[in-house]
């Protein structure tokens, strides 16, 4: 087994992990800040892919789809928060969980009715078709682009949370919403924005996955499971955890695929089991945190 | 039908038992009488899940076969009814639904199932209950002596037939062949078929990768497949797995290095990922609508399907629904009713031509002997219209030679 093959394999794993990271991030932010376990996250990922495809065909450019779909679906997420989720804050964790679980069914069926249950082709943007010669092998341009874009989004998100006033409010709001209210911050608006951000990230994941996988109403269910595994490994609510765990899962799947391909899907669950045994709160999770 | 409906029907019938037979018949409500006369065909198929597109086409075509018979007055004056059930692509679910169809709905025969693993579960149930089952899913084991019963018929092609036909078209002596295979019955059987065919041709196997069934991402298998440097990559999986695997192989530039070959090239998956990705991919098929220029029965089938479905064309797996139900109904017609032994007898003697030319069920194992198509996906610029997907590379006429022999399958000869 030569080195270049292993490097190519690592790169495949990172590209795979990049989509996982962006999807798990939305899930973990919403949980961390709002305490809502969003079971509709996979369905919103799927809706994002359809919205991206629809907007791309409407405008004739993938880039508009990539830009507008997360914003539009993010806004749709805010509507969901405002109309449905908001009413359940302060109740047990099961209530929003059941609500979003039901919501995911409604969304999937809705897409089935509008677009049918067959897959729809999602062409790779023309600028990114083909492979790039890395010297040691060829790698799809599109997947390299996904890695780069996810890195940029992560950086932007980190800057926004750590360096801006809004970020400060958000972080503080997650820790102690009551004090924030006393200080005169409209915490309801912060939560609205956070839920929108989480859903927007799911949609971004969906648009990015579109040209790699076929777009179909069920595409979100597998992603939801993967995103939860990543979130649990990283520690529920931890942003750093989602990033590290997403890449870890992607790379593990990829390296296992090299030696024992039939084990490739199981490895992420094995990884989760091991992490839970050693660190029940996840790699970056806080012990005993209440939702 | 709700449970209460069927119980009330029985009580009504019991209440009427005292009356004379003629009076009872007159007094019985229309529904009750129809239920006694109707021929019911159970049809389990995966309406939800990754094979849903193919399953829905099967249902449309099966309904067409039923409709055509009913339009001509049914079988011996009895109307035919199709009872479609979602097997959810799950063997346990399929077994339960099949059992319900037999015990509760009192079906006279079962046709259907799409996944090779699921069909074996259906077969277990029908075999134990002595009900005729016409399988329309690819399988190499259902005809083998251990799974076979006199009630089991296999209308679909099997992996042995398709892989041999595809290999004949694409492989040459000394070529290097790699395999990407779904890790379940269908994939294993296709791999076995390809390896057998490539050994006969003299092509070399350079490696095989088994992937988990239903995987969304195949990228992690690509670097290793490319490092094997094959001339041909055989991708043996089904439904959405086929679409995703081919798409991602093409993304990785596989087609520049090697030819992509699949045992069964799927109409719906070609539509789902588009012409650019599938361009040049070669695969086997039981049916393609473009056959209508070569075959009268294909033209008639296309026309009937178009008329019933707003101008849409029938697909490969859809055609199985038509020929599976159609052959069963033809045998019932010949047997003059639904008596199981007589219908089995009639099926064994049946010569039918419903979609693409002559077919018959081989006596020893009830495998349908039929032609195998080899198709190549067309370039976008070469397509005459949206439905012009494939070029027909070969149409191998059906013969016993393309099947494994009866003694090889474990049957007494």
Automatic annotation (TrEMBL), chain B:
InterPro entries per record: BCAA_transport, Leu-bd, Peripla_BP_I, TAT_signal
Residues spanning the signal sequence: 1-34
Stretches assigned to the Leucine-binding protein domain: 38-380
Keyword Plastid attached: no
Keywords carried by this UniProt record: Amino-acid transport, Signal, Transport
Gene Ontology biological process: amino acid transport
PANTHER family registered for this protein in UniProt: LEUCINE-SPECIFIC-BINDING PROTEIN (PTHR30483), PERIPLASMIC BINDING PROTEIN OF ABC TRANSPORTER FOR NATURAL AMINO ACIDS (PTHR30483:SF6)
Name of the protein in its database record: ABC transporter substrate-binding protein
Recorded family membership: Belongs to the leucine-binding protein family.
Keyword Repeat among UniProt keywords: no
Top-rank taxon: Bacteria
Annotated Pfam families: Peripla_BP_6 (PF13458)
